[in-house]
Amino acid sequence: xxxxxxRNFVLxxxxxxxxxxxxxxxxxxxxxxxxxxxxxxxxxxxxxxPITVTAKDGKVTLRGAAKDGVTQQxxxxxxxxxxxxxxxxxxxxxxxxxxxxxxxxAANTAPPAAAPVEAPPTQAPTPEPIVVPSGTALVVTVxxxxxxxxxxxxxxxxxxxxxxxxxxxxxxxxxxxxVTGTVVTAKEKGKIKGEGQLALALTSITIRGxxxxxxxxxxxxxxxxxxxxTAVTTGGGAAGGALIGGxxxxxxxxxxxxxxxxxxxxxxxxLTGNKQIExxxxxxxxxxxxxxxxxxxxxx
Length: 300
What we know:
Layout: H1 2-42, E1 51-56, E2 59-66, H2 69-80, E3 87-90, E4 93-94, H3 98-108, E5 130-132, E6 137-142, E7 146-147, E8 156-161, E9 165-167, E10 170-173, E11 178-187, E12 196-207, E13 210-213, E14 218-224, E15 228-234, E16 245-246, E17 269-271, E18 277-279, E19 284-288, E20 293-295
Parallel strand pairs: 2-3, 2-4, 16-17
Antiparallel strand pairs: 1-2, 5-20, 6-8, 6-19, 7-18, 8-11, 9-10, 11-12, 12-13, 12-14, 14-15, 17-18
């Protein structure tokens, strides 16, 4: 009687242990399948491929379709790398290439008759910009009087282009264009000693409604001693490009300068009785470009 009871107890305990182990294995297989499935969905290579994962007794089975061979191999690697996996059975198939199918279909389809190709219209060459080179003379007339006595250093003055500028036969800057200049130096001559000085330069020009910054040589005239006068051009330009004038009885506005040759500078200027440098309004001045100006091509 006791022996039969012991045997029954052993049988029941073994059955319970088998059920426990089976449940544990089933739970582990479910976890493995879910983890592998999640990793396939997150991996940039395998995501988007319809691959399903099942697991039994540590063996993972992959079913479905992979986009290509690389995706298929990556899915196997992910499954093998999962903890608890003993073996991987890859039953996936590689999906056919849509590009290849399209190529085959195109190869079996007769090409349509080619339409005649019309020659593109001939385009006219783009006009080149006009470059006014450095060294070009700009002849202007000042719009207001300037002097070593009354003008101030840094003062802005206006002028008008007196002669048009052409480049290779093309009109570049028309006569009458508005010009802006600056008084570089204005120094009144003292009664006993010291020197009077007046230096000018151009800074911008308006051409056909567009303003352009320019750089020119500086016209510089100096009076010192007993009426001794020097005139030079600095910052580029010809030696003749200076403030030119003379004394004509000390009268105000006397001794208006004149053009002294092609490309040379000139100024209507005079020494007044107190030996100051004065340039009356409408006096002609020639400045020399120290830097070239690039202008758009002229309108047709």
